[in-house]
Design a protein that fits this description.
single chain; alpha/beta
């Protein structure tokens, strides 16, 4: 197993990730980082489960590729939810702790678009975005994507499941043809194959584990109930497992 230093990570980034407790690369990081550090025209499909270290796998190399003199977005990370958007932006900020004047902006719905526009006007280097809000900014002509060198689609299968296929098409039509397209996904449905065929050229595929397999330490159980009964069903589950720890995902703010 190689170290992060042996993979080619720059000293200022190396110092930051060591302070975060990163010791040795995960399998996806060991495979992806050297490939992305090779240079231009690198299209890559990486199939790996959530929690395998994908953010550092694409984040560390793209941080090293930023030219801070150019006050425009040079890397674009697309992800399905505001929570993941904030998480990725936070991780990239942590990794770049010792890179002065590097600007990273999370762009997502449910927060002030005027504030995001003001930050874009001041100049940012990396944009982490949910598709819907980015389309809004594109339509308002307040974000320029003509300096993008790396496009990363994280949890691409989830973005497609949530109905962002047309938005992704519209966004990818706005970025330069000469760029690196990096697609990270847990599964490889037909819709992702369509995107890779349309927007990627001779992409290298890296698979960690078996393609389309679920996480081995996760057991899936579901209950079919009427909508009106879901809170009672949830209460019954919580009563049956009094020491339960969990996260509940809801569709709307009101429901949450």
């Amino acid at each position: 197993m190689k170290t992060f230093e042996e993979l080619g990570i720059a000293p200022e980034i190396l110092q930051a990730i060591q302070e975060l407790g990163y010791e040795n690369p995960t399998p996806v990081q060991e495979e992806v980082i050297p490939y992305l550090l090779q240079g231009k025209n690198t299209d890559l499909i990486a199939l790996a489960q959530t929690g395998t270290g994908k953010t550092a796998a694409f984040g560390l190399p793209i941080l090293q590729d930023i030219d801070k003199k150019i006050k425009q977005p040079q890397a674009l990370v697309l992800c399905p939810t505001r929570e993941l958007c904030l998480q990725i932006a936070g991780d990239l900020t942590d990794y770049s702790k010792y890179i002065n004047d590097l600007k990273i902006l999370p762009v997502y719905g449910g927060s002030s678009i005027e504030s995001q526009i003001r930050t874009l006007k001041k100049g940012v280097h990396i944009v982490v975005a949910t598709p819907g809000r980015l389309i809004d900014l594109i339509n308002r002509k307040t974000v320029k994507l003509d300096a993008i060198r790396n496009v990363i689609m994280d949890e691409a299968d989830e973005m497609l499941n949530m109905g962002f296929s047309e938005s992704i098409d519209a966004i990818l039509a706005e970025v330069p043809k000469e760029k690196n397209t990096l697609l990270f996904s847990a599964t490889m449905p037909k819709e992702i194959a369509r995107i890779t065929k349309k927007y990627m050229k001779e992409a290298v595929e890296i698979t960690i584990g078996s393609k389309n397999e679920g996480a081995k330490n996760v057991k899936h159980i579901y209950y079919m109930v009427h909508a009106r009964d879901k809170y009672l069903a949830l209460k019954r589950v919580a009563d049956y497992y009094p020491n339960i720890y969990g996260i509940i995902f809801c569709r709307t703010r009101k429901e949450t």
